[in-house]
Amino acid sequence: MANVFKYCTKEQEIEFLKSLNLGNIRTLYSVSNHIQNHYDYLEIPKKSGGKRKLMMPDLLLKMIQQNILKHVLYGFHISSYAKAYYKGADILDNAIPHVNRELLLKLDLKDFFHHITFDMVKELVFKEEYFPESIRVLLTNFCCYQNTLPQGAPTSPTISNIVMKEFDECVGSWCRKQNIVYTRYSDDLTFSGNFDAFIVIQFIKEQLKEYGFELNERKIKLLTKSQRQSVTGVIINQKPNTARDYRKEIRKQIYYIKKYGIREHLKKLNFDGDSSDYLKSLEGKIRFVLHINAENIEFQNYLKEIRNLEKK
Length: 312
Prior knowledge:
By secondary structure, this protein is an alpha+beta fold.
């Protein structure tokens, strides 16, 4: 496709930028020229241990990024193999394709967002056939920090899906020929079927290297039907379900509430917050079970009981 923006004048580039509805033009250039002043560093604990490093944009930059997300990025197509970071995304969409399969292989990408560079975003997202050169640089600058995709910016998840589109299609096409089911949830790659795991892993390593990514070899998991198979927290051996221990803990909480009453139960737990906060949290856990398995009558009854307690 010919680059129709190659001979754009400065005035035409400004008009193009205005058409994107990102905000005041002077403000856009001012923020872009001092992007490092608009991020705060934050560390939060991971469930698996260690710390997750986030770069959080301030309110002004966040507003600009949200406008880029709304007026620019939402117009891009992503692969059907991508199961996270789009409107209506559900963890069930990532789990259901792998239900009741012989083998389940789970792979993890190492430092996923960090491996998505300024050049990758510019070339794969803000392509020259769609944007004038100066606007490509400007938009990429708003979405990157210190040459990588910042984990914490509202644009980063969607950009990661756009960047991974070609990889997803390549891997998905290869898997279809091998009768293997493939999905990707952010940096988690999942494969299921009846296959030689070594061949799949080697193929993925080669593809990742070609696209500039790296496999986290410490997180490779291969599970058979005789083991508990889970995908994004959903058990998928026979049908989608939550973990037995998760449901068991909810049952225990319900039992003690019935036995002692909510106030005494919270005293025994040394719970300092309001009882309504505890009940809302417990309701959320029950709703999660029902979201995964809506036909669970036991937990339907728990939900009714908790909602009655909340009313009181």
